[in-house]
Amino acid sequence: MSVPESLIYGLVLLSALAHAVWNAVVKHSGESFLQLAMIRSVGLLFGALLATQTPLPRAGALGYLIGGALFQYLYFFLLTHSYRVLDYGTAYPVARGVTPMLVAIAALLFLDESLQPLQLTGVLLVTCGIFALIMKELRVSGPGILLSVGTGVAITGYTTLGAAGVRTVANPLSFVAWLEMLSAGGILVSVLLTQPLRGLSFARANLLRGSAAGMLASGAFAVALWATSVMPVAAVVATRETSILFASVISVLALNERFSPRRLIAALIIFSGIGALALA
């Protein structure tokens, strides 16, 4: 069954909102790595349940699964460390802001995937809007910015490998299921080996919040990865990185930051880019 592109973009926008929310949960947790591990434990359960309902991925997908999981481990490591040295309103926009054009370049080089003129215009508009949002943050010095940029590079790696891998299988959800289990399993093993009692205590104390954030994370990732199987990956990623805009709104509502004219202009640019992508 063919899915209308407008519906796909709508679902990706919802996944962007979910992504911004669960990242805010990780940032504002006193134990960001343990919170992330708890979120990924839900991903492990989600992946296991999904795997029982889908066929095994083909052997050709194994390399993409392993590579995608390794890049996700790198992403988790850099994300949690960047949140320790930068606030949410800085670390998140920088990490996500460098991603759309990096993914567009990677898709051109490794997936032989070029964009139509209107799609390219949309990606560029979204990228420009994102950088309009983060120009102030880019003036922040120190290792935190490097950690956030590295996080964006890791996102590019697992997104590109995921998009390539999901196209090698008959059912994209089978790839999603096994990537969820691989990426989540590594995080949980590291907690069990290094701080099992502390992790268990944290899980008991934060069961509801961690479970809800985990469902948001798994659902958002599944939607985004599925979308790359039917749409150009750069267009999907550009749309998903509007999570930066949602993060800005969360910062205003939760942290009482002022929604400045710069943010309003950036929002208009981003939505213009989404409109161009939707019409392409």
Characterise this structure.
Helix content is 82%, strand content 0%. With 280 residues, the protein is mostly helical. The mean pLDDT is 83.
Provide the descriptors you would attach to this structure in a database record:
280 residues; mainly alpha; globular
In short:
The protein is mainly α. Helices cover 82% and strands 0% of the residues.
Radius of gyration using CA atoms only:
18 Å
Sheet with most strands: none
- Tally of alpha and pi helices: 13
Query: Could you list the spans in which at least 5 consecutive residues all have pLDDT below 50?
Result: none
DSSP strand count:
0
Structural class: mainly alpha
Q: How are helices and strands ordered from N to C?
A: HHHHHHHHHHHHH
Mean pLDDT level: 83
State the distance separating the first and last CA atoms: 20 Å
Strand residue percentage? under 5%
Helix proportion of residues, in percent? over 70%
